[in-house]
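Thread title: Can someone regenerate the structure for this chain?

I was given the following input by a collaborator and told the matching structure tokens would be attached. They weren't. Posting the sequence so someone can regenerate them.
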Amino acid sequence: MKRGRDMMIAAALALMILTGGALRFLHIGTPSMWVDEANTVFSAEALVKTGMPDMPTGNVYGRAPLYTYSVALMYRLGGVSLENARNTSAIYGILCIPFAFIVASMLFGWRTGLVTAFFMSVSYFEIGWSRVARMYTQFQLLTLISVLFFILGFERHDTVRFPDRFFRPRFLFSGIRVPGFGNTDPVALLIFVLVTLITYFGVHLLAVFTAAGLGAYIVIRAIHTWIFPAGANRMKNKYTVCTFLFIAGGLFSLAIPQIRHLLIKFLHYTPAWAAEGASSASQTGVLFRFLFSWYRFPLGLLSLAGLAGLVRGGRRSGWMAAMLLIVPLLILSFVFTHRHTKYLFFVYPFFLMLAAYGTVRLVLIKPVKLFSFRSRSVFLTRRWTAGLIVAAFLISPWLRIAKNIPFLDDGKTNGAVYFNEWREAAELLHRQMQPGDCVISSLPEVMLYYRVASDWALNGNNLALSASRKIYDSQGRFMEVFAGRPLVDSPETLKRLMRESPRGWIVMTDYHFSQPLYTPPVMKQIIEARCGAPQWTTNRTVRIYAWDHGKGEAHEF
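Best answer:
Regenerated them for you:
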């Protein structure tokens, strides 16, 4: 009986992995390069050729080095291309499906694990980031692995059931039992620490939130033992001991001025793109709206049902998933100065686990009484509950978006980022440019990938970045950090370039041109007055302005 069930579970999981893989790999090279992908693509290519992850400027690209090395490995295996860079993310994204299944099964049981795997395989947010050459799927995978080893080391003997009989790694110690503390596996905990440190230093600083979430889980378990001792010593348990160690360590760390100042700087750092009024990232509710928007219906409601189940006496191990989601969500929303949905991606599987747990509870609990008359009562049976949940998914847009992502045209969103038609814009310039033409671009690093060398960059955000870092060239001009192009730093500079160059092109995304942060209104007026109407790419995501002194009198500014 159990063997047949286990084979069914394995077959279902394999089907979900295959489905998720197809949605992640199919037509992965269709969209043009997204701006942040350029950093990965160029630095990984340089790593293959020279052994150093250099940008076109010659500066070493130091962000997420572990991901850069992964892309370089993919380049060595399959050649240098944007598709192979994205394939790296797709592979990590696919691996997240079985690891999310294992973690969810350990915390909630195999039914929740299977539903979690289904959500992971078809969630368009998961699919979207798996089709972008950035470190986020690697970050998510390492987070799941670190949590897995924390469970194996700290909670395995108390909470783990299926699939423990299959996933039974043999470490140096099978466990150390201390009276009142339960079993622990120091080797598994050491691996947890190592994976967390590798993630923090090699992929993303937000890995510290994994430790914070697990710390919150331990504190809640400690409080639970104080309130409900169940015959055990209220204070003599691993949760209480760890809680007091956390408090002592935190107070000691805050007493050190260097650590205190570094923490304040970290929490108050605000990039220019997230400044007040420049982006929705300045709004505290942006992440809550993301999780509970119509596009994720009914996942948000199901996750609340899962939380309610945990509060009403559900599996205490499930509190771990809740804290791993809630702690980063609260810190990002109310402590950090800027928020972006990509910062929540590494803990998104725990949101899906809560939704899966809520789904399983709603289907498996006793029939729900809807209302009653004097003579009879009307119940919502398990079958009807499951049918309503399936119907909710069918009317919600997220499944339709997921299956359509591989077939979307360039210049559309994949559920994670919005792509701009830089490939098409570069092809237009290749057909129309003449030798000596001046090219000004909002993203010269992306244009460079498509073999268009920009002479100047027009991007207010990059100008602010260069000014803050004091990046100049030999002539004293602000230099763009990523492609090494001089920046248009004032309306007078823009006027001079358009006056001194007989012909020229200004290539900008519609977003960069429309936002004052990137293109000040006075520069917009100059461009529109001198160049007239722009050429547009097919989906109107990139606009191309041109001036030509030979087609009329030069405009006198």
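The longest strand covers residues 503-509.
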